[in-house]
Fold this sequence. Notes:
The complex is a heterodimer. By secondary structure, chain A is mainly alpha-helical.
Amino acid sequence: MANTHNKKPVFLNLLQIRMPVTAVVSIGHRFSGLILFICIPVLIYYLDKSLQSAEEFAAVLNTFSSSPVKWIAILLIWVFVHHLVAGIRFLFIDIDIGVDKKSASISAWLTLLVGFIVLVGGVACLL
Amino acid sequence: MPVMRTVTGLRAWLVQRFSAVFMLIISVLLVMVFLSQESLTYEQWVGFMRHPVSEMAGVLFFFAMLIHAWVGMRDIIMDYVHGLSVRVILLVTIALTLIAMGLWTVHVLLLPLA
């Protein structure tokens, strides 16, 4: 519906567009938010289970000490950290801190870096 | 449609930010509590979660999380889903899911024996 008056060509091949780092952080924030949304029932489920009895509590700990679950957990921690740090970055931008192109680009790289460090740290713990 | 709100973006924007900051504060406190523990037994965990302050903070935390998720999912759908009927179906599904999860949370945190 947006294109009824606008005949400009639209090129949206995401694999070919060279996105600036700020755009990568932004879309990463959105995508990580979607994943976290999907994780909410899992979180409540394990919270519920962990509080039911000592046996269930031990079962939850046992689940999270199995290798495939640990790998998934590391990935999800990365997703969470990216969402958190990118969100804090947006809060600063909201109050006019770091809006100019250079600092926005630096903070975007830092956001990716923090997530990457957490991911590498988590993987290092598992290996 | 004479009585429709003309601006809904600002409220959603504020809700998103305030819920985020609230969750951030609770998360930092929670991480500090758990890092100060050597190990966690079931008794300690239940004792912590059944403390009235934890219960209230927990319910508020999940409430903030669910409303934050609502605004975020609503933004995503408004940006990418343009067919009206599909959009309404998705929004209603997500809203009902979040309400159900809110009730579930209250049950888990406040009414464990009910």
